[in-house]
Amino acid sequence: MHKGRCEEVAGLVRDLWPQWTPADRETQVWIEILYPYDYEPAKAAIKAVYAEQTRFTIRPPLGKIREKIRAFLPARKGPLPEPVLHYTLECIEHDRPIVVGRKYKFYIGRPDQLPDEDVGKRWAENKRQCFERDYKGHWITIWASEKGRQ
Prior knowledge:
- Helices cover 46% and strands 15% of the residues.
- It has helices at residues 3-16, 24-34, 39-52, 62-72, 117-135, and strands spanning 84-93, 103-108, 138-143.
- Strands 2-1-3 form a three-stranded antiparallel β-sheet, with helices on one face.
- It is elongated and about 65 Å long.
- The two termini are 24 Å apart.
């Protein structure tokens, strides 16, 4: 589920548990946990957990919600989809010639998990800076042609 949908689900959680006032970081953790799941099972699971509550709670039970989401997911048939190449980092200049031309590929688990373009660019830029700091040299980002990125 993309980030906008995750925020919608987090909003649903805040509506069902109105006394819960999460900090920004806590909301971010919820979004990260909900990100791999589809929107409809997540929404149905949250409503089911809320309906099954036998006592009043201020905080939503994240563990129970995760279990319920997994229970709502359809059984997987067939093999997992192939991971999708997101981008490649390549060294184009280095003090040691053996490092020049070295490539590191970064994949995303499923095609529907590709992040927004600006998020993907931030990830790649951050990773490129880490490579330049740790491995030295000059590294470039080569985008995979997926979704028209070059």
